[in-house]
Amino acid sequence: MSxxxxxxxxxxxxxxxxxxxxxxxxxxxxxxFEYTVLIANDGEQPVQLISRHWIITNADxxxxxxxxxxxxxxxxxxxxxxxxxxxxxxxxxxxxxxxxGTYQMVDADGERFDAEIAPFSLRTPYAVN
Length: 129
Hints:
Elements: E1 2-8, E2 11-19, E3 31-41, E4 47-58, E5 63-69, E6 77-78, E7 83-92, E8 96-107, E9 112-123
Antiparallel strand pairs: 1-2, 2-3, 3-7, 4-5, 4-6, 4-8, 8-9
């Protein structure tokens, strides 16, 4: 399991990833990973998650960018002290990779900012790289 944690303007993002062998097929170069994200508002005013931007890199150095509205079909509005948690997944053609990115947020004054998602690894338990 890999973890990352960062905070941007009071928005704390924590990620935990894990390999899912029951959905993977290494013989077909298909590895499947789940990641759980906690987004917490440690600030003093409400913030809303508008969209996401992920950069996924496999062991061969190939990068894939994923952009879209919200997360898991939601654009959570978080008051001070509130949090939102979700689990999603990422298939890879290699046994090792990394993910990082940003959530585009808007505060109560309508100001937009990017909340950083610190890099975390996607790796099988037996990976040596």
